Amino acid sequence: MPRLTTFAALAAAALSVSACAKTDDLAQVPEPMGRFLLGHTVTVVEEPEIGPFSREATDEAWETAINFAMEERFGRWDGDKYFHIATKVDGYALAMIGVPVVFTPKSVLIASVTIWDDEKGAPVTDDPKIFTVSEELSPEALIGTGLTKTADEQMLSLARSLAKSVQEYMMENIAWFGDASLMDPATTSAGTPAATAGTVPPQFARVKEGAEGAVLEGGEEVGGTSSGVRSETPGGVETTTTGTTVVESSS
Questions:
Q1: How far apart are CA 30 and CA 28, in angstroms?
Q2: Residue pair 7/91 in contact by the 8 Å Cβ criterion
Q3: pLDDT above 70 coverage of the chain, percent
Q4: How large is the angle between the packed helices 151-172 and 59-74, nearest 10 degrees?
Q5: Where is this region: Disordered (predicted)?
């Protein structure tokens, strides 16, 4: 997405009351999705457009949040055919403190997502799917979370909304993932709930952001304005300046 278009979309979304995703299904056994089995999740962040009235976050923190949310949601399936999810962060706005009712900026994430078929070594579509998402459904999200959440908590919420939107997109194109009847019932199951459903994992612990950096509530210092840490790029995936390329089969 061109940078000017991305910025315009961020500005409009940050100042509007957009629909919030409902992600409370993580504690449930997922609906069947063919032979899908999660392979790698890779997130690329390269000079994303930052919307107006936004906190800033590190690239590493975005990688951590999105990879976590994708693995949390898509790790629930137990198929027998690997697929990879590659995400590129195009832009974001993390709501700052505003004036209630009069001015309450919203958090938004714009990302391009590509689904890769491991067996074919190619994406399932020629072009990435572009998503624009807001935070998870909650009373706070409707009035802005600049006062009630840290940047980490906002990023995790946006990442979970993105993962849910990607799932809905994949369910609309379930034929990509093969016929579930071809799986061996002795080695596959219906899937499992996410162990982290409804929780804020330690890497997204609440932080106090002060002039000298961010400090966990327990007193431990963390880097920058976010407690996210860089996650290792999984084997078999290569990140480039133009996107993400799967270069080796994981099976």
A1: 6
A2: yes
A3: 64
A4: 40
A5: 210-251
What are the pLDDT digits (tens) for 27-44?
999 999 999 999 999 999
36-63: average pLDDT = 92
What are the residue ranges spanned by the domains of the chain?
Answer: 3-184+198-246
DSSP string, the chain: --HHHHHHHHHHHHTS-PPPB--GGGGSPPPP-TTEEEEEEEEEEEEEEE-TTEE---HHHHHHHHHHHHHHHHTT---SEEEEEEEEEEEEEEE---BTTTB----EEEEEEEEEETTTTEESSSSPEEEEEEPBSSHHHHH-STTT--HHHHHHHHHHHHHHHHHHHHHHTGGGG--GGGS-TTT--S----TTTT---GGG--EEEETTEEEETTS-EESTT----PPPPPTTEEEETTEEEE-S---
Question: From the CA atom positions of the chain, what is the Rg in Å?
Answer: 18
**CB-CB contact of 99 with 53 (8 Å):** no
Residue type, 13: A
Among candidate residues 147, 139, 166, the one with its CA nearest the CA of residue 66:
166
The three-point CA angle 108-206-52 to 5° equals: 25
Q: Which of 1, 42, 22, 51 is nearest to 164 (CA)?
A: 22
What is the token pair recorded at 232? 């290792």
